[in-house]
Amino acid sequence: MTRQFAIVDTTLREGEQWANAHFSSADRLTIANLLVQFGVEYIEMTSPCASPQSAADLRSIAALPLGNTKLLTHTRCNLEDVQLAAECGVAGVNILFGTSPYLRQWSHGRSIEAILAEVGPVVRFLQERQIEVRFSCEDSFRTPLPDLLRVYQAVDLLGVQRVGIADTVGIATPRDVERVVGAVRNAVRCDIEFHGHNDGGCAIANAYAALEAGATHIDTTILGIGERNGIAALSGLIARLYLSEPESVAGYALPMLAQLDHTVAAMLGIQVPFNACITSETAFAHKAGLHTKAVLANPSTYEAIDPNAFGRERNVLIGHRLTGRHALQ
Amino acid sequence: MTRQFAIVDTTLREGEQWANAHFSSADRLTIANLLVQFGVEYIEMTSPCASPQSAADLRSIAALPLGNTKLLTHTRCNLEDVQLAAECGVAGVNILFGTSPYLRQWSHGRSIEAILAEVGPVVRFLQERQIEVRFSCEDSFRTPLPDLLRVYQAVDLLGVQRVGIADTVGIATPRDVERVVGAVRNAVRCDIEFHGHNDGGCAIANAYAALEAGATHIDTTILGIGERNGIAALSGLIARLYLSEPESVAGYALPMLAQLDHTVAAMLGIQVPFNACITSETAFAHKAGLHTKAVLANPSTYEAIDPNAFGRERNVLIGHRLTGRHALQ
Ligand SMILES: O=C(O)CCC(=O)C(=O)O
Ligand SMILES: O=C(O)CCC(=O)C(=O)O
Ligand SMILES: [Cu+2]
Ligand SMILES: [Cu+2]
Asked: CA-to-CA distance for B247 and B241, rounded, in angstroms?
């Protein structure tokens, strides 16, 4: 089963919301260029309303030759914000409203009716300018399913390109994701984007479960940076897809993944986590004696991902204490 | 739905197989003591056959007051190895055989029949000494299901305490885990342990899916260290369980989690990954203006895990570029 999907890399929006991320304009340009070369379908950037620098950087990157990559920005759902976004020259705008009781009461104070009343003019404004629109229900997994479906069906009828399902607080399990994405898949005709946080350690599995249930667009960031402990890492999603359907990721510049992770880690002054898929220093290291012996005979014994497909090398550790006896057998 | 489960922490076995892990005897003692205080049900240590030091450390830790925590070691499935294990004073031994065609051909060259013939005497040896026995099919997810069930049913009839399902090369999705664990659950009476690698970024989600499907024991390591890019992190599994059923983890010393992760990271000379659940420096940091504003009104808006339950503090970042406009609303 080969799926059609698109990657929405939001390192330059969600990633900037990671507590220790402070990208310069030059950093943003470097990241955008690397993502274009890697081949993600979309790059999402911080709202131009966040600061004059964010607006300026959005304009510069919109003016670059982006090949097949489309530039999005992520704004609040009001005319002032999307107007500025349109002036910056983006191909699409990702808008959202919190729909959970938590966010309706404590963040913006609006009822579902009031939210729907505000979405219409914003969507029409963008449509008149041939700008792609995506509408998300923020905190989807704490929103009652009837409210969720009601909002998605309403915006689907408005003709948005896609709806977004967001696990804003990172509570969903893969089963939850399958259930909610499946219900939305049956309720709308438009595309479905999924965005999931990692508070419960399931961001990558949830992104994959969303694809299994019919999502078409997945949000990632380089390394997985984002609010709190982040969202699905680009290299993690690629690893998961490669394991299940290598042909589905063959169009991306896979040997660039390590460069992407290391470049952004250097900008942030952090290590690439040892548990990063594909790009971790030790991702292809084999240590236990039973493993090293078998890997030397046939790498597939303990290796489901081919390091060569990602420009990496296998590292068979020989001669430490755990190898001792086994290597002599 | 509150589940009964036990945590098998294998930092001192699987964790030692991480390429850059080189614990001293003092490190091992520190780690074992912290795990006992935290309250894991089992600690698994490297085989005493690996080196004289491993044997000596296993004996020292077996001689400690371990409270309700049981000490296991992980050995090859032969009489010589389990004999030494028994002499070291462990409460249980985890044994295994590779059952996938890859491992049968390239690692040990045995048929399923030959494997079964070797298991019997080893299990009986341990049973005669009242030592718990667990038998795993290594590389379960690349083993044909009929072979898997045949082996598990045979060892179940021998009276082992539990069987182990191992995603040795990290290829399983949560759906795969549910399917295989569910099939084993229907085939055996004994307990079921799950051990899953993180090559596809799904180790924590897979561990949780195993519990949903009827597994009773889950393997973790501190930080998630292990071969290649590791297995399910203890703090990740706890976070996932806390989100779904906080009462199921209330018996552990939750405020110790950060200490566990930071102690082991310091021993290894690495950072606690920014994406670690609960224990990452930024796990409870809120940055975007919409988030900070709402979190100040009610933390639950953007926080599904209560930092206080883990002895941690919320960190609301104010006054940087992403906060600007929103904070003024
Ligand atoms: O707009 C979206 O779909 C996601 C917004 C966001 O970052 C979140 O809800 O976590
Ligand atoms: O004994 C087990 O269940 C697990 C062994 C192991 O580390 C693996 O298969 O990855
Ligand atoms: Cu987000
Ligand atoms: Cu393992």
From this structure: 9
CA atoms within 13 A on the CB side of B262: 9
> What is residue B298's three-state secondary structure?
coil
Tokens 């236990």 belong to A288
Which ligand has the minimum distance to the alpha carbon of residue A193? Answer: 1
- Distance separating alpha carbons of residues B286 and B296, to the nearest angstrom: 10
Tokens at B4, concatenated: 């009964």
Helix or strand (DSSP H, E) at B98: strand B92-98
Q: In the numeric block, which tokens belong to residue B33? A: 């003591």
- Looking at residue A83, its amino acid is Q
Say which residues have a Cβ less than 8 Å from residue B16's Cβ, sequence separation at least 6: A322, B23, B46
Query: Is residue B180 predicted with pLDDT exceeding 90?
Result: yes
Residue type, B11: T
Asked if residues A229 and B280 have their Cβ atoms less than 8 Å apart, the reply is: yes
Round to whole Å and give the CA distance between A55 and A67: 21
* A228/A18 Cα distance (integer angstroms): 6
Q: Within an 8 Å CB–CB cutoff, is residue A53 touching chain B?
A: yes
- For residue A132, the SS3 value is strand
Q: What is the CA radius of gyration of chain A?
A: 21
Sign (positive or negative) of CA dihedral B59, B53, B123, B72: positive
Start-to-end C-alpha separation, chain B? 42
Q: Which of residues 84-103 of A touch B (CB under 8 A)?
A: 102-103
Under DSSP, the state recorded for B190 is S
Average pLDDT per block of 10 residues along chain A, 329 residues long: 84 98 98 98 98 98 97 98 98 97 93 96 98 98 98 98 98 98 98 98 98 98 98 98 97 98 98 98 95 94 97 89 45
- Measured in angstroms, how far is the CA atom of residue B158 from the centroid of ligand 4? 24
How far, in Å, CA of A277 to CA of B229, rounded? 7
Q: Is the pTM of this model over 0.90?
A: yes
Mean pLDDT on B52-75: 98
- Kindly indicate the confidence band of residue B321, based on its pLDDT and cuts at 50, 70 and 90: low
- For A18, the closest chain B residue by CA position comes to B287
